[in-house]
């Protein structure tokens, strides 16, 4: 389904029954990356998955995006669909959108699940993002597939789960260049750590112990900044911990959500 919000058409799906749970995916993926979580949680939650601006079936306007803009997209979608308070789960870029939204629109989220994400990226990393933008603009997404998969999954998982790697690789390859580069302008500008104390909802931070992009230390910084937040570290998981260790990931999420009243 598609909904016009904040000047673009956003692709989304709704599955299940119960309290609202909104899922926001990583850079260069789509809402399809949440399939194991939708299957596990739809019996207890009404799950809204949406494609971020520039990804999947959502419009990909040219130009640099900002995290505030992506948070406004989400707020516009929730408003258009008549969704009030909801639980929110975001991974990587999705977690950044969630933190930005929680600070900009306090009271909307009932709880936060912030997975394999960070609240700050130092200026020393900016050349990496500039290089990725240059590659995509010059040669498309194909050259980015293999190095991205190497960061997102452990070598052992890729060797034994070629089907999952291939599926994620296709998501990366099919991401519009305008959407990828637009978000690559937004992500490295994140600097929210000192503001996170204003978030006053139950929060679970999930990290993968093999994640080189958003390491455990990044998750711990978020957990320490948000009052009473919890941190869970998943063993043998890199960046897409929800796909590499879905059983452990789903258990952590389910236990956390059952405790929220």
Question: Secondary structure elements and their pairing?
Answer:
Elements: E1 2-5, E2 8-15, E3 20-24, H1 35-41, E4 46-50, H2 67-80, E5 86-91, H3 93-104, E6 109-115, H4 126-139, H5 142-152, H6 155-160, H7 162-174, H8 177-186, E7 203-208, H9 216-225, E8 230-234, H10 241-244, H11 246-258
Parallel strand pairs: 3-4, 3-5, 5-6, 6-7, 7-8
Antiparallel strand pairs: 1-2, 2-4
Helix pairs in contact: 1-11, 2-3, 4-8, 5-7
Determine and state the CATH class: Alpha Beta
Principal-axes shape call = globular
Helix content: 40-55%
User: Based on the structure given, which CATH architecture is correct?
Assistant: 3-Layer(aba) Sandwich
Count of separate structural domains = 1
Major β-sheet, in short? 8 strands, mixed
User: Strand order within the widest sheet?
Assistant: 1-2-4-3-5-6-7-8
Q: State which percent range the strand residues make up.
A: 15-25%
Uncertain regions spanning at least 5 consecutive residues:
none
Describe the structure.
The chain has 261 residues and is of the alpha/beta class. The chain has a single domain, classed as Rossmann fold, CATH 3.40.50.1820. Helix content is 44%, strand content 18%. The chain has 11 helices and 8 strands. It has helices at residues 35-41, 67-80, 93-104, 126-139, 142-152, 155-160, 162-174, 177-186, 216-225, 241-244, 246-258, and strands spanning 2-5, 8-15, 20-24, 46-50, 86-91, 109-115, 203-208, 230-234. Strands 1-2-4-3-5-6-7-8 form an 8-stranded mixed β-sheet, sandwiched between helices. β3 (20-24), α1 (35-41) and β4 form a beta-alpha-beta unit. α4 (126-139) runs antiparallel to α8. The radius of gyration is 17 Å and the shape is globular. The relative contact order is 0.17.
């Amino acid at each position: 389904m598609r909904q016009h919000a904040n000047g673009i058409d956003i692709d989304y799906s709704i599955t299940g029954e119960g309290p609202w749970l909104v899922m926001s995916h990583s850079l260069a993926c789509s809402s399809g990356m949440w399939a194991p979580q939708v299957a596990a949680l739809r019996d207890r939650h009404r799950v809204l998955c949406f494609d971020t601006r520039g990804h999947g079936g959502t419009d990909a306007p040219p130009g640099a995006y900002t995290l505030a803009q992506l948070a406004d997209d989400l707020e516009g979608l929730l408003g258009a669909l008549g969704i009030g308070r909801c639980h929110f789960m975001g991974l990587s870029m999705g977690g950044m959108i969630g933190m930005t939204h929680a600070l900009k629109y306090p009271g909307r989220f009932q709880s936060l699940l912030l997975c394999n994400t960070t609240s700050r990226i130092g200026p020393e990393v900016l050349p990496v993002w500039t290089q990725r933008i240059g590659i995509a603009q010059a040669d498309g997404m194909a050259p980015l597939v293999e190095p991205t998969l190497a960061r997102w999954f452990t070598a052992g998982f890729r060797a034994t789960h070629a089907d999952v790697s291939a599926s994620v690789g296709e998501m990366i390859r099919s991401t519009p260049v305008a959407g990828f580069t637009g978000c690559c302008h937004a992500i490295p500008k994140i600097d929210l750590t000192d503001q996170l104390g204003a978030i006053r909802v139950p929060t679970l931070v999930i990290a993968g112990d093999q994640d080189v992009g958003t390491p455990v230390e990044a998750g711990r910084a978020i957990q320490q900044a948000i009052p009473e937040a919890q941190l869970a570290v998943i063993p043998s998981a890199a960046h897409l911990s929800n796909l590499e260790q879905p059983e452990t990931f789903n258990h952590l999420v389910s236990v956390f959500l059952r405790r929220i009243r």
